[in-house]
Fold this sequence. Notes:
The chain is built from eleven helices and ten strands. It has helices spanning 30-45, 67-80, 89-100, 116-123, 150-158, 160-169, 175-180, 193-205, 209-221, 227-241, 245-255, and strands spanning 6-11, 14-19, 51-56, 60-62, 105-109, 112-114, 126-130, 134-136, 172-174, 186-188. A hairpin with a 2-residue loop joins strand 1 and strand 2. Helix 1 runs parallel beside helix 3 and helix 3 (89-100) runs parallel beside helix 4. The chain is globular, with a radius of gyration of 18 Å.
Amino acid sequence: MPYRDLQVELDGGVCWLTLDRPEQMNALTPEMGDGLVAALDQAARDDEVRAVVITGAGRAFCAGGDLKTMNVRAERERTAGGRLEALNAAGRRIPVLLRQVQKPVIAAVNGAAMGWGCDLAVACDIRVAAEGARFGELFVKRGLIPDGGATYNLPRLIGMDRAAELIFTGRIVDAAEALRIGLVTRVVPAAELQAETRRLAAEIAANAPLAVQTAKRLLYAQQQLTIEQAMEQVTFFLSTLRQSEDHHEGVAAFLEKREAVFRGV
């Protein structure tokens, strides 16, 4: 089936999902989110798929949510008295799906992975990054909290203190630092990213599917809080934060290319 802003390719048992808004640095739209949900669901049910790769077209992996699109929709919902927590439901469903899909998922991070894009990379099982890749949990600079599972996934990946630093500061880290702190599995020259990811995915796909799928299930099942419970908490707090003046100021500052002035309201 055709997907909007998303390329889907099955190659040798590996399903490649390429975010395809290169001129907008693959910023997430509701349509792209819906496409990712549908494609991941299809990959989960397709016995030919042994592994999944998520990457971005052009120079970015994913620059986060498309604030212009999301801000317009938010204004419409506010005018209509709608519930803002429904604004980006697909974006918050994807980290749950990435756990539920019993196929290994590799993020081939070809460039900037910011905000929700960083969350997406972190939610994958393995991350291979190009040397020019950068990662940033920028939500606090928009008056929000990570909405793609980072508060759940990041501490489990790099430890609570490092996760707290990245989330509290919104600081951007380069590929070398990401490798040092365990945020990514390996870093390769940009020209070798696709080939290296293909080799890794093919190595996984060559193994016994049931064994690999069971191993993934067990790796994540033996943790205390479920991703579903974590995302319910995120949804609750986002419903409040999206109505705050700080959030509106953070978005306005981004769109107007200026520093935000937050007042804590």
